[in-house]
Design brief:
By secondary structure, the protein is of the alpha+beta class. The chain is 49% helix and 15% strand. It has two domains: 103 residues, no CATH class; 112 residues, no CATH class. A two-stranded antiparallel ribbon has the order 1-2. The two termini are 24 Å apart.
Length: 233
């Protein structure tokens, strides 16, 4: 059975439309100056705020490598000067949680444990408040359409970091299967692509930059189609 027949048999005849995206940051109206206030705000801020403070950094300009990879840990280290707690929050991987509610619960639990351990309530200066924000995603059509999986590798060379964020990271939030768009599309082409899909699933998006994710994906696609003899242009 040729690949066109496989695609038709699986009912997956749609091409892959490459999208781009940007994040618009919006205020939630919640701030915190002390660690106790921070803990209380974690209970009430919208899910979109928790999501933003873990993932929004990917689309923000970075002039150096951040020591802590989420906004919560960075504030606790830089402004509350509580390194031990910052390290506990920094190792939280949001991809390990089924939903934002579970992630929120883990954050609150670690902060509460720390508050029980220290004899004071850490606080920041008045000009170093933590501002809880949320983000709204703006999706743009790039006009680029892929008709065959072998086009993925060359297409990645031209994809913006916004495209990588949308298809590899944001897809896990907006789809029922909590899967990246590349894997979902490849699954419609039959079992031949199962090893490639499993290799994509092995990439941890949280502890890599978008540039690194793009490189890893490009290497996977290039290697797979080179070994299988499919043409990659």
């Amino acid at each position: 059975m040729n690949e066109v027949s496989v695609r038709e048999e699986n009912g997956y005849n749609e091409p892959f439309n490459v999208r781009d995206c940007a994040l618009i940051t919006l205020s939630t109206g919640h701030t915190a100056q002390t660690l106790r206030e921070f803990r209380d705000r974690l209970e009430v801020v919208p899910d979109a705020s928790i999501y933003h403070h873990f993932w929004g950094r990917f689309l923000q300009p970075q002039f150096d490598e951040p020591e802590y990879n989420n906004d919560f840990a960075a504030w606790i280290y830089n402004d509350l000067h509580e390194k031990a707690l910052a390290e506990r929050l920094s190792v939280i991987d949001p991809t390990e949680f089924d939903d934002i509610s579970a992630l929120r619960g883990e954050l609150i639990e670690r902060v509460e444990e720390y508050l029980d351990e220290v004899p004071w309530v850490p606080w920041s200066r008045a000009d170093q408040l933590f501002f809880f924000v949320r983000s709204q995603i703006v999706i743009m059509d790039t006009g680029k359409v892929l008709d065959h999986p072998s086009e993925l590798a060359p297409a990645l060379n031209e994809m913006s970091l916004g495209s990588i964020f949308y298809h590899f990271i944001d897809a896990r939030r907006r789809t029922d299967a909590r899967e990246d768009d590349f894997s979902a599309w490849l699954a419609g082409w039959g079992e031949r692509y199962r090893p490639l899909i499993e290799a994509i699933h092995a990439i941890d998006p949280y502890f890599s930059s978008l540039k690194e994710i793009r490189r890893l994906l490009r290497d996977l696609f290039t290697g797979f189609f080179s070994e299988s003899g499919s043409k990659v242009t």
